[in-house]
Amino acid sequence: MFSYWLAVVRGLALPALVTGLLCAAAMAAALALGDGAPWREAAPQSLTAGAVVALAFAAVLSTANLVGAARTARRYGLALGPEAAALPCVREVRVPGIADRTAFQLTDSVRYGVQRDPVLRLDEVVAFGHGKLDLVVAGPSDTTVVVRVRITTGPEETIAVVEARPAATYKRLDAAASWAVARVLERRVEETLRAEVTNIGQTR
């Protein structure tokens, strides 16, 4: 959990720095132009205030995000780690090659499994085709998550890639919502593909 918090802090470093610098510049201008203080005296006070604002910005946002992420992890039965802070969240599933099944058929099986999943709250199937499945999922805490599933299959190996990100593209943090949805989908995709491998083996 602490490693997740550190990952969030690292992600907030640049926004916190920009916020602190803007605050310092505004305070220096107010002291120099408003109060008539010399720039030499205004600069140290302004930089100190900017540093405090930057630290407070990073601390408050990272802690609030950690609380939400911990709640999400408990809800989905997952262990929270630093990878949960990355956006987009990408997961990969690899199983042996599935003979006599096209990428379209495998994608259809995955779509059916996702629609029946008791944990996922599927809002919409946006796109469905040959090795392509795009979804909109209602994540935790009313977060909407956009998911892309891409499946490629060959004689030796079948690979599925799950990518999840917030529907609001401006978001840099989502309290691990995309990660949780991606992990649940990863499990569902793996179960579906391994069931296909088993079925093919039994019919031979």
Shape: elongated
Question: Given the helix and strand composition, which structural class is it?
Answer: alpha+beta
Main β sheet profile: 5 strands, antiparallel
Instruction: Pick out the low-confidence regions.
Output: none
Mean pLDDT figure: 89
Strand order of the largest sheet: 1-5-4-3-2
- Helix-strand string: HHEHEEEEH
Report helical residue fraction. Answer: 40-55%
Please give the alpha-carbon distance between the first and last residues: 47 Å
Q: How many individual β-strands? A: 5
Task: Calculate Rg over CA atoms.
Answer: 23 Å
Helix segment count?
A: 4
SS strand fraction: 15-25%
Structure notes:
The mean pLDDT is 89. The chain has 4 helices and 5 strands; from the N terminus they run ααβαββββα. The radius of gyration is 23 Å and the shape is elongated. Helix 1 packs antiparallel against helix 2 and helix 3 (103-116) crosses helix 4 (177-203). The chain is of the alpha+beta class and 204 residues long. It has helices at residues 2-34, 39-76, 103-116, 177-203; strands at residues 89-96, 122-129, 132-138, 144-153, 157-166.
